[in-house]
Amino acid sequence: MNIFLALLLLALGLSWTGSAHGRAPLADAIVDQAEDDPRTALALADAKLTEARQRGDGPLLVWLWLARAEVHLISEQPDEAAHDLGMAREALALLPEPVDEGLRLTWGLTQLASQRHRLPQAEMTAQLATLRPRIQALGDARLLCDLAMAEAQEKRRAGDIDGAWLAGEAYARCARQQGNPYSMANALTGLSVLRDLMVTDADGVRTSLDYAQAALIALDGYPARFRRSIIEWEIGATLIDKGNSEAAVEPLERALALSRELGDAAGVAIASTDLARVELVRQRPQAALARLGATVLPASLPVDWRANAAKVRLRALAQLRQPQVLGELALARALLDELPRDRSRSSLLAAMAEAWASQGRHQAAYDALQEAEALLDGLRGQQRDQQAVRLQSRYEATLRQAEARRLRAEGEQARLALQAEAARREGLWALIAALTVAATVGAAAVLHLWRTRRLAADLALRDELTDTPNRRAVATYAQAQAELASRLDAPLTLALIDLDHFKRVNDTWGHDGGDAVLRAFARSAQRVLRGQDRLGRWGGEEWLLVMPGTRENELDAVFQRLRTAFAQADIAGLPKPHGLTFSMGAAMLTGAHTDWMNTVNWADQALYRAKQLGRDQMRCAGNDEDAL
To answer: How many helical (H) and strand (E) elements, i.e. helices and strands, does the chain have?
Structure first.
């Protein structure tokens, strides 16, 4: 038994036997082993299939055939995967009813994955639409991850890059929650490819490569030679496509070395093909042919990979003006029948034109170039149409967000008006004045938003993540309250709040976890603050709290209410109790410092003092012990 797998199963408390209900841990272990060495994973699967047959364990037999199919899909062997899926279907038909729904759905998703390069797009979409509600109803976490991955692939194939990106992000979140480094690396690699399709400028290239590098980091410390070879190849191929061939050599050589170590003939051929592309850029066609050797990519691999190898061979032979190029042209013509009408087909036609020209067949070269150019023109038109649709969709979404903000602002204005009326009945004239000013500011903001519908986020009054006033809005409120407090000689306290060890939150639970913490703090604070108090996001994990009518001796009660509410908050993806805390520094606006920004600075110094003293506490700049 593979030592790593044995230790893994021992650590998880799992046995090598399957169960009649739920996903067999052994199947997951075999699929994980394929990330390091698919051949070892297949050998393990075969050995366990024999044991399962001897024991008559029908459910485990199905899981093992499915695991074997997934291993073949990981190594791009769809024909072998189809055979395994057929065996799984036969074993599934022999199981007594009721059959585990998760088993049926896993078979369905794996079957769909095996056909992704062959099934027409419409049929693929229809089958996925049939499986989706059943998987969502079952609620199995692993299947939901697989569903997100399948949807990302389906949308990318359909040309819906924005939709594929959203599905890819959902897959990455799911993988992170599952704690599966192999799924995480797979998700990040997919996002790298999608980012490259979405963005074409220099910054986009760096972002694409960042995702690929993050995928390698996710695998750090895990046996994943096969997956690393794929990621290193992706990095190298991206660098070549973006004109940085010299930088591509190192990751491609690493991919080639890993593939040779694993005896992965297809991986060796693919990496060698791209290293040959580098030699062509260097104007070394003989070296390119040496890189290619006599290697032929298996017909089971995606046609665009095979076409890539054909293009390199054609261009190298054309540059050398060797007559063997005519035989390669016949093979390339056969590949054209398999290629969809995309850029891969256009670039193969261009390589064929170069080859025809090298042999003096200028009419054939002209015809191939004409076909390539016509195809590119059609693709450019499709891209323009798709871009227009995406921009229109984003514009309409932004308008809906602006309308929602306007409605929220109107609701806020109405709430302030009701509070002002209640305060009038209670005789709180200072509060009436404060609310009137706030209502006036809110009305001006609503009018401005309604007239301009500005799409720039820096002019919005709400923080999109937490749905609280942003820095611009809370600063406006603080300034208005400071002017009012100065005129009426009324108390006003400002406080800065900072979530403790927030970087640790992002490092532990990712940025999605950090965002959930920020939203939870905003919700819990708004539940316990008074109506005239205003909490706004000041920046990052820092907040400004404006408290009209509040004096120093009331601050401890405010802090304790906030502290209790946050401690009890439910935060998606985090344990309960979550144990997160915050520090608070406060300063009161007095005759000694009536400038509100100066008061914020005093509060900031008090916040620094709270952190120095151990965090999870409140300090006030007005206290003698903290006077600065």
So the answer is: 24, 5
Q: Where are the domains of the chain?
A: 380-461, 466-626
pLDDT band for 20, please (50, 70, 90 cuts): very low
Q: Angle 490-494-498 (CA atoms, 0-180°, nearest 5)?
A: 165
Torsion angles phi and psi, residue 323, rounded to 5: -70, -15
Q: What is the pTM of this model?
A: 0.56
- Taking only the tens place, the pLDDT of each residue in 304-337 is 778 888 888 888 888 889 888 888 888 878 877 7
SS3 sequence of 96-165: CCCCCHHHHHHHHHHHHHHCCCCCCHHHHHHHHHHHHHHHHHHCCHHHHHHHHHHHHHHHHHCCCHHHHH
> Tokens representing 536?
């706004």
Q: Residue 388 pLDDT > 70, yes or no? A: no
Peptide bond into 548 cis (omega under 30): no
Tell me the chain's radius of gyration from C-alpha atoms.
31
The architecture in CATH of the region 466-626 reads: 2-Layer Sandwich (3.30)
- How many whole angstroms from its chain centre is CA 276? 32
Q: How many residues does the chain have?
A: 628
Helix or strand holding residue 40 (H, E): helix 38-55
Residue range 203-261, pLDDT digits in tens? 444 467 888 888 899 888 899 999 999 999 999 988 888 888 899 999 999 999 999 99
Q: Is-contact 261 255, C-beta < 8 A?
A: no
Predicted confidence (pLDDT) at residue 435 exceeds the cutoff of 60: no
Only one residue has tokens 């959902």, namely 170
Question: What local confidence, expressed as pLDDT, does residue 41 receive?
Answer: 93
Short-list 550, 553, 620, CA closest to 584: 620
Distance CA 89, CA 62 (A): 8
Question: Amino acid identity, residue 380?
Answer: R
Tokens of 547: 């408290």
* Structural tokens at position 360: 């003096």
Pick 454 or 111 by higher pLDDT.
111
Q: Among the listed ranges 27-41, 163-177, 295-309, 480-494, which one has the minimum average pLDDT value?
A: 295-309
Q: Which of 626, 517, 533 is nearest to 574 (CA)?
A: 517
Other C-beta atoms closer than 10 Å to the C-beta of 396 total 10
β-strand 534-539 against 542-548: which pairing, if any? antiparallel
Q: Pick from 306, 386, 385, 371: which is nearest to 341 by CA?
A: 371
